[in-house]
Structures are given as C-alpha cells and as structure tokens.
Amino acid sequence: MFLSNNACLVPTSFWLTGIPGLESLHIWLSIPFSSMYLVAVVGNITILTVVKVERSLHQPMYFFLCMLAVIDLVLSTSTMPKLLAIFWFGAHNIDLHACLTQMFFIHCFATVESGIFLAMAFDRYVAICDPLHHTSVLTPTMVGRLGLAALLRGILYIGPLPLIIRLRLSLYRTQIIAHSYCEHMAVVTLACGDTTVNNLYGMGIGFLVLILDSLAITASYVMIFRAVMGLATPEARLKTLGTCSCHICAILVFYIPIAVSSLTHRFGHQVPPHIHILLANFYLLIPPILNPVVYAVRTKQIRERLLHILKAEAQPK
Predict the structure, then answer these.
(1) How far from 82 is each of 12, 36, 133, CA to CA, in Å?
(2) In terms of C-beta density within 10 A (0-12 exposed, 13-18 middle, 19 or more buried), how is residue 303 classed?
(3) What DSSP state is assigned to residue 101?
(4) Contact by Cβ (8 Å): 51, 57
(5) CA distance 87 to 160
(6) 145 Cβ partners below 8 Å, 6+ apart?
(7) What is the pLDDT of residue 266?
(8) Dihedral sign computed on CA atoms, order 105, 106, 111, 116
(9) On the CB side of 38, how many CA atoms lie within 13 Å of its CA?
(10) 113 near 254, Cβ under 8 Å?
(11) Which residues of the chain have pLDDT under 70?
(12) Distance from C-alpha of 85 to C-alpha of 284, rounded to nearest angstrom
C-alpha cells in the first residue's frame, strides 16, 4: 500500500517489471537465465571446494580467487532468484526495505570485487617484480587484511547509498521500476524531489571504483610488463606472463560488461529499454560464470584436481 501526496506517492513497496518490452517472453527468458545462474553457482562452489581440499593451492592468488567466488555467489544470488520469481510466478512486488537491501548488496559487492582485483594485481606485481619477498609480503594474514579492506571499502562507499534514498527521497512519481532489480539510478529517477545529491554521490562512487581501480591495476601491469621485458629469454617472458593471464582475463570479464552497461545507460538514449536491462543483468552474471571457467582452464593445479575428482566419481564402486 502507499499514500498519495500531490500526484506523488509514498510507497511501502515497488513493482519490478522484469525485462520491459519482453514481458511476453519472460517464461522463455527464464531458461537461459536459470541455466546461467546454475552454472555460476556450481562453478564457484566447485572452485571453493577444489582450493579447500588441494593444499598446493593454498597460495595468495587462490585465496583471492576464493574471495572472488564468494563475491560472485553473492552478486548473482542478490538478483537471479527475484528475477526468476518474476519470470515464473509473476512476483513483481518488492518491499521498500528489501529493495534498498538488494541495492546495497549489488553495488557493495561489485565494489568489493573491484577491490579484490586490485589486491590480485598487487599480488602479481610482488610475485614478478620482487619474487624473493613474495611469501613474506603476501602472508595469509596480509591476504586476509586485503580482503577485509576491500569489504570495508565496499561497505563505506555503498552504505550511504540506500540511506540517502531513504532519508532524502520519500516521494515518487510511480512505484513501478522499469528494471529487473533495484538498481540505484532506476530508483532515483522515479523520485519527485531533488536528486542532485544522489546523482553526484553515485557518479563519485563510480569514478572512485571504476576509474581509480582500473588506473591502479593498469599501473601495476605496466610495471609488471617492464620487469618481464627485462628477462633474458622469450620462454621466460611467456612463462612469467602466463601467471598473469587468468587475472587479466578475469579483469576484462568484470570491467568490460560494467563499462558497456554504464555507457549505454548514460549515453545510449536510443537503445531500447530491454537492451539496457539485459546488459545490466549480464554484467552481474557473466563474471560469476566465466571466472571459474577461466581459472579452471588456465590453472594446471585446478584442472588436474578437477579431472581427478571426475575420474574418481566415474569409477564403479
């Protein structure tokens, strides 16, 4: 229920449309989305299990990979169950507090994931540019502190986002959100009041996270490539770069969909709404799906352990 005030509303809940313009295809869209969500969940749980049981993988890079797996599970689970409920059961309604909570988890853990990629870039920098001190610098305690710092940064950056909406924006033109989840700008654009603070804060956080993190990661890889080019043989260069290939692929998988989604949202005014929403969902699904695949294919220890588990399961008992 909601109250009216001069053509504006004080909603106690919102109505998520799902994929606007494709409502008639929701039941069919549920097939690829549910399949991708299942792959993401199974893939990331598999990575967590393999790293836990394989002691040779108890190294900084794989600890960070486990953090990525947990974050990807949180990100995909923050949106996909509700989206599938909309597709299957027409469960469009979402409580105001549930909407703000979903917004917090989505934006917070996307920020945390960016922080983990930054920590992984630092790990690769130390491993290649100062290999003798890698184990003494990237201790399990230090890895834990870096992960905690990324989490606290995400909470610090994103925590005010739903609070500003709750405290400053109480009146809305409609309770219908033309989106499949409670994305920050999708909610803010419905408000009747002045949204300048909300817009500036959202853009500021986007700059701090996407721009500064990507610049720091780029700087670390510039120094890494300089160190690699100083190696004596091409074989040594390729082997050293090979240790960074998984991280580079994971970074591209994370940042490219976000960049494309953000650019189309802000500048692609001629792009149909359903394309915006599909892109927004894909950037929350693609990294959770591809990260386990990239690391399983490119990491010998993970690949061998997976093959060992599959062979053990295939043997008759």
Answers:
(1) 18, 15, 46
(2) middle
(3) H
(4) yes
(5) 31
(6) none
(7) 66
(8) positive
(9) 7
(10) yes
(11) 1-6, 232, 265-268, 313-317
(12) 17
